[in-house]
């Protein structure tokens, strides 16, 4: 059991993880308070530092979870993450798990994946300002690991929802239970790492190596919902690229 500060706890993934990580002592925080969740804006350095004190780990989910204006993703995702990492060092929290995204590497295609799949830590190739902010978060994590020895595990999450719903999800789905397994594994991992956040999908084309290295063994497979999702058209760029149709959308528009 660990004491975990969770940011962004009111969001989709936070709500999925809350019951699944309840054997830990959870400090639930979000910019939107309520229902057992304390108010914490991750851009408020003093408040973040106060919230971190005495925690064993920080699970940093809070932020803008899709494309947005450059200044907004810079302020919330990048500066907010810097506040979290700096507070961890100042208060002696040894480990931060960062919610990165597939969009940090969204412009790689299936052709870039070898037989073992696209490596977890393939160099960033963002498909949007959002993806760029996630790449910047990963690199801030690396800086704090290299300079301060903080363990920082960056999860390049695919599509985390209750059930897969679209053709692309057959490859990219991360089930809620596997999300909890992934976070549990990340809570004991060491170093600076980038790991795909994806379930054991039959059609997965992202590597399993990074996950296995930290003891993440996914159980779920989106294929069970194949009929509801529909067959992906693999000639469409949205099914060729890591980031799906994000690159077809205008930069900075939510
Ligand atoms: N759900 C997915 O499929 C997916 C995929 C890739 C990455 N991610 C990442 O995982 C994290 C959680 O995703 P989600 O789907 O739960 O998103 P979400 O939008 O449902 O939740 C994000 C939460 O962050 C909070 N937040 C926003 N600004 C904040 C601030 N300044 N301080 C503190 N909290 C703030 C929001 O109020 C919200 O509750 C995000 O960082 C997202 O980018 C999610």
TrEMBL record:
Segments forming a coiled coil: none
Pfam family for this entry, one: Epimerase
Domain NAD-dependent epimerase/dehydratase: 4-158
This protein's record includes keyword Oxidoreductase: yes
CDD domains per record: SDR_e
One GO MF term: oxidoreductase activity
UniProt keyword list: NAD, Oxidoreductase
NAD found in the keyword field: yes
Sequence similarity: Belongs to the NAD(P)-dependent epimerase/dehydratase family.
The protein, known as: Nucleoside-diphosphate-sugar epimerase
Species of the source: Catenuloplanes indicus
């Amino acid at each position: 059991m660990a004491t975990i500060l969770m940011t962004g706890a009111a969001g989709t993934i936070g709500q999925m993880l809350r019951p699944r990580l309840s054997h830990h002592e959870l400090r639930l925080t979000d910019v939107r308070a309520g229902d057992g969740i304390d108010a914490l804006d991750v851009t408020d350095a003093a408040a973040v530092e106060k919230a971190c004190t005495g925690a064993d780990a920080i699970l940093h989910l809070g932020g803008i979870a899709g494309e947005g204006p450059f200044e907004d993703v810079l302020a919330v995702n990048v500066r907010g993450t810097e506040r979290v990492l700096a507070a961890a060092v100042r208060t002696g929290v040894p480990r931060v798990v960062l919610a990165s995204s597939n969009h940090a590497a969204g412009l790689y295609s299936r052709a870039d994946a070898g037989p073992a799949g696209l490596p977890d830590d393939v160099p960033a190739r963002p498909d949007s300002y959002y993806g760029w902010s996630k790449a910047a978060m990963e690199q801030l994590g690396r800086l704090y690991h290299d300079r301060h020895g903080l363990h920082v595990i960056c999860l390049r999450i695919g599509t985390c929802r209750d059930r897969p719903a679209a053709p692309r999800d057959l490859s990219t789905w991360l089930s809620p239970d596997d999300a909890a397994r992934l976070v549990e594994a990340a809570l004991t991992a060491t170093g600076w790492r980038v790991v795909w956040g994806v379930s054991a999908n039959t059609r997965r084309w992202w590597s399993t190596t990074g996950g296995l290295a930290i003891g993440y063994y996914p159980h779920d497979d989106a294929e069970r919902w194949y009929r509801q999702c529909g067959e992906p058209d693999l000639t469409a760029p949205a099914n060729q690229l890591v980031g799906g149709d994000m690159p077809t959308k205008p930069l900075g528009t939510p």
